[in-house]
């Protein structure tokens, strides 16, 4: 039950970070989409190097560009990267199996050195980027429109509550 409570608190905290940022919904959504773009396409560890400058250039939320890359983190890469490489290998018409991909990536994550990374072979590297490109094409627009809708909805609800409070206060003063 503690894990469920912790996850719920983290989701609420993330939601509040998104909707309370002081900027236009488009600016916030653009930053999150930039973060998601690089979080899906670029290998873990290099994402911030790309997403933050892109957020400056494309005038998006730097917070969103930073946190948006966290789609791939120390927990999710064990699931996302093997699937991403497998999908990429299928698109390429490669004969890489899911278990071979998972074993190769596990070795890289366990050793955490460039020799193991470069030892993967070009087929797997190509599969990673092709699968990542597909994930990027799907996730980036979804992220943009979902974040924009969340911010607009939250601000609309907040304005309604504010108007309701003001009306109630005015009614109390008129008595």
Provide a descriptive summary of the structure in words.
- The chain is mostly helical and 175 residues long.
- It has one domain (25-174).
- The chain has helices at residues 2-20, 25-41, 47-57, 62-67, 77-92, 98-111, 114-118, 122-174.
- The protein starts with a helix and ends with a helix.
- 26% of the residues are buried.
- The model has no long low-confidence stretch (mean pLDDT 85).
What structural keywords apply?
mainly alpha; 8 helices; elongated; 175 residues
Distance between the termini: 49 Å
What's the helical proportion of residues? Answer: over 70%
Q: What's the domain count?
A: 1
Structural class: mainly alpha
Low-confidence stretches: none
Roughly how many Å is the radius of gyration? 21 Å
Topology:
Elements lengths: L1 H19 L4 H17 L5 H11 L4 H6 L9 H16 L5 H14 L2 H5 L3 H53 L1
Helix pairs in contact: 1-8, 2-3, 2-8, 5-6, 5-8
Quick description:
The chain is mostly helical and 175 residues long. The chain has helices at 2-20, 25-41, 47-57, 62-67, 77-92, 98-111, 114-118, 122-174. Helices cover 81% and strands 0% of the residues.
């Amino acid at each position: 039950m503690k894990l469920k409570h912790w996850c719920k608190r983290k989701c609420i905290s993330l939601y509040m970070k998104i909707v309370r940022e002081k900027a236009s919904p488009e600016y916030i959504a653009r930053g999150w989409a930039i973060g998601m773009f690089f979080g899906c396409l670029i290998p873990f560890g290099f994402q911030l190097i790309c997403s933050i400058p892109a957020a400056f250039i494309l005038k998006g939320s730097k917070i969103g560009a930073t946190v948006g890359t966290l789609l791939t983190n120390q927990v999710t890469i064990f699931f996302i990267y093997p699937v991403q490489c497998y999908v990429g290998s299928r698109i390429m018409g490669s004969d890489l199996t899911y278990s071979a991909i998972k074993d190769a990536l596990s070795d890289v994550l366990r050793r955490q050195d460039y020799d193991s990374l470069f030892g993967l072979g070009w087929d797997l590297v190509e599969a990673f980027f092709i699968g990542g490109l597909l994930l990027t094409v799907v996730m980036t627009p979804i992220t943009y429109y979902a974040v924009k809708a969340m911010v607009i909805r939250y601000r609309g609800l907040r304005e309604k509550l504010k108007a309701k409070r003001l009306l109630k206060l005015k009614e109390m003063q008129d008595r």
